[in-house]
């Protein structure tokens, strides 16, 4: 089914693994002259209060009943936050759809399931809008990784670029050639950096100033570099639970200085990103550019170290793109779902077939 010419007016909701807050982007999407186009109208991050951060972090350890309760509570929170966003910018009557990624809690594609909480029905009820959610489950049902999702949006919304690095809670990358997209998670990123920044009394390491003043710990660097995750074939995906149970659990906080751990974490992330280029065969890196987005793109020291390891030019875009690209792409993937067009590709996720991912909750009937 080809996209029609109607302008889709969508708010994308994205809550990442770093738990910074809920990203909201109101975007217009339209298909014209064989190309998807977009315009960001408004964007905002609703910071999570500490109680919400603690609640979300505790969810994996809850009973099934308590888990489902928090799933619904978070959905209403997402919906109310989005409703307030619409009222603030006077766009309630203009918005057609919301697309909510949810908060990833469990992601075990090898066992056939993934869970992004933030109940879509609750989002719809509290925001009083139609909602697309649960974008990953269909791909996982077809034996895919359910990740990464972002490369499909990159392919259609940023056609002048060929390599995309995202530095969120987890680093992930996609390589776009003329006939193939290779994409996968690389390593821990802000999940690792923020954990050890907090040991120094900071929510995060602004511009990488803390890490820059630390010293490399060779034994820890070697441990992290030899993590079994790096031996897995691509495509592959990483999750916060695994980072906590392996990367962070390996650190002896009684004998190592947090500032040195931070320095080592930056070096490990940068090294791993460089190594990821070796996993791609037949890709000509000559004169190619890599755009970096996600909160980690604002970490100047991390970017400096990444440049030391990669064979391409590193581009840092404007701050709006850095911070809200994933929410923008969630809106786009939801737009494809609304248009009944494939938004998960087997060549990216390893699934047995392409699929149209996303559950729909209708607050009211909207014609395509």
Topology:
Blueprint: E1 8-15, E2 21-32, E3 35-47, H1 50-58, H2 64-88, E4 97-100, E5 103-108, E6 113-117, H3 120-127, E7 130-133, H4 137-141, H5 150-157, E8 163-167, E9 170-176, E10 181-188, H6 190-198, H7 209-212, H8 218-225, H9 240-248, H10 258-276, E11 289-293, H11 300-309, E12 313-315, H12 319-338, H13 346-349, E13 359-361
- Major sheet details: 6 strands, mixed
Distance between the termini: 12 Å
CATH C-level label of the largest domain: Alpha Beta
Quote the CATH topology of the largest domain: Nucleotidyltransferase, domain 5
CATH 4th-level superfamily of the largest domain: ATPase, nucleotide binding domain
Please state the second-level CATH architecture of the largest domain. 2-Layer Sandwich
Which regions have little confidence, pLDDT < 50, spanning 5+ residues? none
* Strand composition percent: 15-25%
Helix content: 25-40%
| Overall tally of domains | 2
How does this model look, in words?
This protein is of the alpha/beta class. The protein folds into two domains: 173 residues, Nucleotidyltransferase, domain 5 (2-Layer Sandwich), CATH 3.30.420.40; 170 residues, 2-Layer Sandwich (Nucleotidyltransferase, domain 5), CATH 3.30.420.40. Helix content is 38%, strand content 23%. It has 13 helices and 13 strands. Strand 8 and strand 9 form a beta hairpin. The longest helix has 25 residues. The radius of gyration is 20 Å and the shape is globular.
Short structural summary:
This protein is α/β, with parallel strands linked by helices.
């Amino acid at each position: 089914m080809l996209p029609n010419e109607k302008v889709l007016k969508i708010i994308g909701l994205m809550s990442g693994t770093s738990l910074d807050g809920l990203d909201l982007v109101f975007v217009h999407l339209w298909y014209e002259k064989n190309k998807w186009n977009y315009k960001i109208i408004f964007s905002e991050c609703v910071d999570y209060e500490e109680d919400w951060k603690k609640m979300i972090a505790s969810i994996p350890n809850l009973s099934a009943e308590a888990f489902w309760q928090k799933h619904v509570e978070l959905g209403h929170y997402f919906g109310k936050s989005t409703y307030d966003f619409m009222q603030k910018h006077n766009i309630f009557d203009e918005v057609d759809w919301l697309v909510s990624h949810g908060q990833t809690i469990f992601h075990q594609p090898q066992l056939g399931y993934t869970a992004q909480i933030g109940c879509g029905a609750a989002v719809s009820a509290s925001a009083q809008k139609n909602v697309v959610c649960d974008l990953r489950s269909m791909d996982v049902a077809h034996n895919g990784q359910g990740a990464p999702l972002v490369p499909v949006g990159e392919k259609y919304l940023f056609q002048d670029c060929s390599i995309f690095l995202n530095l969120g809670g987890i680093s992930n990358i996609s390589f776009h050639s003329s006939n193939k997209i290779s994409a996968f998670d690389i390593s821990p990123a802000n999940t690792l950096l923020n954990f050890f920044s907090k040991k120094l009394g900071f929510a995060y390491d602004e511009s990488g100033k803390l890490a820059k003043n630390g010293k490399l710990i060779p034994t820890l660097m070697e441990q992290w570099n030899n993590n079994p995750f790096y031996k897995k074939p691509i495509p592959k995906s990483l999750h916060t639970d695994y980072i906590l149970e392996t990367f962070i659990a390996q650190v002896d906080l009684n004998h190592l200085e947090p500032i040195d751990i931070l320095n080592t974490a930056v070096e490990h992330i940068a090294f791993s990103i460089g190594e990821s280029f070796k996993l791609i065969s037949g890709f000509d890196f000559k004169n190619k550019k890599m755009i970096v987005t996600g909160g980690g793109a604002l970490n100047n020291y991390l970017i400096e170290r990444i440049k030391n390891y990669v064979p391409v030019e590193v581009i840092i875009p404007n701050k709006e793109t850095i911070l809200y690209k994933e929410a923008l792409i969630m809106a786009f993937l939801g737009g494809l779902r609304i248009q009944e067009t494939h938004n998960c590709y087997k060549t990216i996720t390893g699934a047995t077939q392409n699929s149209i991912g996303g559950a729909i909750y209708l607050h009211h009937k909207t014609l395509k």
